[in-house]
């Protein structure tokens, strides 16, 4: 089996007396979508924050592409190839769709904002940004102000911005949130194709999307991984059905 591109070992985080991550060891391998599911407050966002470098763990470590990244900050992890999409939009609303995609390209290079006008004239970066917009179906809206996009279009733009980083690993926090049935289907199709170029660690509440997309699922309850397996294994697991899917075992 190939080496994981992302791995946590014994990750533990406490807020006072509350343990929100308890000895979490999960990994992400090339070509896969690994979904993290669990009830509200189970610790999914806290886990992502630790993986991406926004929150230091109290114990355990995080390896990115085989390198110990536990003490690296968010930007250093991004430079290693970790791209994150957020539960709440991190887009620049006053900028156009294309400018947001270009800012993503800039972020990848650590270039300061004041050079945006130069970047707009940089043919290579511009075509890279346009190519990512085309992949999510937003190229026709390149000149539109981001504030004017629908919620679903903004979520697609977030994925496009993550793509401009040419990441080796995607970490996605509820990309389906607020999308209608049609929007979820479209996003599901896009994510399904993305896994080929970079595997996805996917936190998601939309179980239809999770069951359609995931190669593996880990179930988090009260900060602990209580089950991990394929869609079929998780669906059949009595502990999961009782603790999370709300069914009698
Ligand atoms: N900065 C903080 N200080 C104290 N407690 C926190 C902090 N951040 C999160 N928590 C608590 O940690 C627990 C896990 O929260 P977290 O947001 O990671 O859960 P989640 O699984 O992502 O939930 P949801 O599905 O609702 O987004 C919750 O009980 C939350 O109240």
Automatic annotation (TrEMBL):
Keywords in alphabetical order: ATP-binding, Nucleotide-binding, Transport
InterPro entries named among the record's database cross-references: AAA+_ATPase, ABC_AA/LPS_Transport, ABC_transporter-like_ATP-bd, ABC_transporter-like_CS, BCA_ABC_TP_C, P-loop_NTPase
The molecular function GO annotations come to:
ATP binding; ATP hydrolysis activity
| Pfam family membership, one | BCA_ABC_TP_C
**Sequence ranges assigned to domain ABC transporter in this UniProt record:** 6-247
Going by the entry's taxonomy, the superkingdom of the source organism is recorded as: Bacteria
Question: Does the UniProt entry include the keyword Nucleotide-binding?
Answer: yes
A cellular component term from Gene Ontology for this protein is: plasma membrane
Q: Which Gene3D superfamilies match?
A: P-loop containing nucleotide triphosphate hydrolases
What is the protein's given name?
Answer: Amino acid/amide ABC transporter ATP-binding protein 1, HAAT family
Q: Which organism is it from?
A: Tropicimonas isoalkanivorans
